[in-house]
Fold:
Amino acid sequence: MQFQLDVNGERHALDLDTRTSLLDALRDHLGLTGSKKGCDHGQCGACTVMVNGRRINSCLTLACMHEGDEITTIEGLGRPDDLSPLQRAFVEHDGYQCGYCTPGQICSATAMLDEIKAGWPSNVTGDLEAQVEASIEEVSERMSGNLCRCSCYPGIVDAIRQVAKEEARA
Amino acid sequence: MTLETTRRLKHDTPDTDRRLDGMAQGVLGTGMDRPEGPLKVAGRATYAAEAHPEAMAEGYLVRAATIGRITGSNGDAIRAMPGVIEVIEDERMIRNAAQGMAGESPVQKQGQVWYVGQPVACVVAESFEQARHAAQAMLVTIEPDGTHVFDAEDPAAEVEKPKQKQLDQGDLEGAMSAAAFSLDATYHTPSMSSAAMEPHASVAQWDEDGALTLRGSYQLLKFNKAELADVLGVAPEKVRILSPYVGGGFGSKLGLAPEAVAAALAAQALGRPVRVVLHRRQVFETVTRRSETRQRIRLACDAEGKLSAIGHENLVSQLPGEVFSEPVAQGTHFQYAAPNRVIGHEIARIRRPAAGSVRAPGEAVGVTAFEIAIDELAKKAGIDPLEFRLRNVPDKHPENGKPFSSSTMEATLREGAKRFGWTHTPPRQRRDGEWWIGTGMAGAVRVNMMIEAMARVVLTGQGARVECDMTDIGTGSYAILTQVAAEMLGFAPDRVETVLGDTDLPPASGSGGSFGAASTSTAVYLACMELRERLAAKLGVKETELTLKDGLAIHENRKTPLAELLGEEEWRALGHLQPGKAGQEVRQATWGAIFAEVAVSDVTGETRVRRMDGTFAAGRILNLKTARSQCHGGMIWGIGLALTEAMEHDPRDGHMVNRDLAEYHLPVNLDVPQLGVHFLEERDDWANPLQAKGIGELAICGSGAAVINAIENACGVRVRRLPATLDQVMDGLIAQG
Structure:
């Protein structure tokens, strides 16, 4: 099937098997291997990308369903020599070890901070009327869809909260 | 021609020179960021499956659904499916991953299915979607070959009791009956999975000369190369393995796994590159798991809590034909003093998927159960569990009288207690709404090992390059090897490049058993020492009087830039560590203490960890940041071991029921509080010339017990069958009324 994908601001023409997941299209057909395949079943979060600003598991959706969508992957957030604030904070706080779940964690966190700003409550939000804070508990709960077997959760939470504080000050 | 000289160390005696303490760059031991960090966080570090040679075909493994003899398949019909190129049913396929450091082929298929889930074929197609679809349509006919046993505790199980793994010192029975207090309890830990985030993947490519290049995800490359060569029947020189980035290992990537063999065989048969990636469910089944254990622990002590007897008799499981068995009592041999001792080790040969090394084989489950038992006996004796442990610190190896290379058990217990604010209270005293609140503690211990390792260091006037086949599985190899070279040769770390994960480079230790950092760092240290000697000779000074810092050679107020000394030359040195008597004459170990606070719901039986602190001693800490992250990892694995992780096997055929990340419950972010980690400053001269020991596994060897002990302190329920699932705790709460 022929279709187009808009990824990180670039349009790509593709001709793929309709069974191709968005994740496999990115990794195997567009050379964007930053998005990782950990389970191919929406269980680990390593494949998290943003579609129209919302975080999704790219292994759980077919590529051909996304013509016209604005897709952002880890490669679209920063480069090794020009990292995004979250990417920098993950390095500083060692919020990763093997690095395999890391792009998914960072894409997820990028969208998650916007969810907090938009006032979305979570399962641990006490007061649904008040402005949600990026507390340890809120960040932990909202990042619990991204598994890390190296178990860098303390560093991940520190990194995200540092950026949340910086953004709040800005 | 560049001269390469070698410096060897046969490690027989302690190193009291402590040369690193005299270096001037000030890089080693700091919390330097990982040099490969920007690549990882930007998604540019390339893992095994991400190699894409031209004309690459896709392979997908086919799984056996029953046990028995293979009598046929619908392979011809599968070959006719869209996009399918070939169906590989080669008898050389391996039934499961090789054991760590095997260096030879594991059991090969040879027409036999040993366990449900064994890979029996590989379908190769033009696209991944085609290969997956065809593999799922493939039927392999299997004739049953008799009845089998699937549970180690089934009386029908064939049980081995290897003589060299039993110990009987003194009179345990006598000590038990004479004791003021005693305990005889049985604990169970479940079958578990390492569940590294990156599934195993291999991309195989043969050249015209019959040489194979395999991009894979492995921990011990020099052994994996030998294993792959043995499986294929080719000379090891014909095999090259590349693993520059490894998405987690934890033991699962110690040995060559079925996808590598399938990719290599398929690529050879087709004459084009082939990629085989294990599906997550195939990772669970075909890569070795941690054996379930049954541990009978007997303890006796006098009225003051002094231990008089220790018994630790264990039953583990394993597939027929595997050499490894979970060394459950590895830490028990020396963790506590007591004159009367019994260690038992039994292996049931059953048809669950193969068992192997998972992070801290032995102590992870052995110390955990033992530290629960110690807590139980302390309670019986009416003694604070911290105080109880302090009264039983051994001053030498309790079984053979050998000295400890360093003994930091008491220091970590005292420091850990202080940092946590440990006070001992009886159970069921603190309540917060529906939650019972309690605290628990445990000691941690792990043996320290060194492995033969080589590394090359190339020095130029501008910087240095470290080269070896070492892997970085998240442990921090890139960071610490860079730091060791930078410290020894006097360069800022950004002037040092570390190149790893290629079997064409000198064979290092590889990553496993917490031996990687210390062993390979020692090889790098030796190479750097060789280069320092050569620099000193060129300057006509003694090496010990030479200071290297910021690219300058400094001697008696004379500063000579290395750029001037070397000009355009490139100096090469090889470091070669060979473990020796230093590993046998003393007991080397790392020690720690873990303290936890939990909340247990009186309504649901759910346990939440609220606070957890670990204090550890592991010799010189090479990188504060990566060492801390390793301890975070170990402590969180302890939370998983205590509360959520269990591989369930179908009692009818042994297959793994919950073989995915939705049903096998790893701790997630919200399951973990912000942990405290503290290191005691230490130099262990017996360990190596760096005075550094392994840190990658220590924290898992006891953390789970701190959680289980805290549950008892919170609500009075003692859990002896891990994990402490809600139903178990609820039954205990109901029994208490």
In short: Chain A has two domains: 2-77, 85-169. The mean pLDDT of chain A is 97. Strands of chain A lie at 2-7, 10-15, 48-51, 54-57, 70-72. Chain A touches chain B through 66 residues (CB under 8 Å).
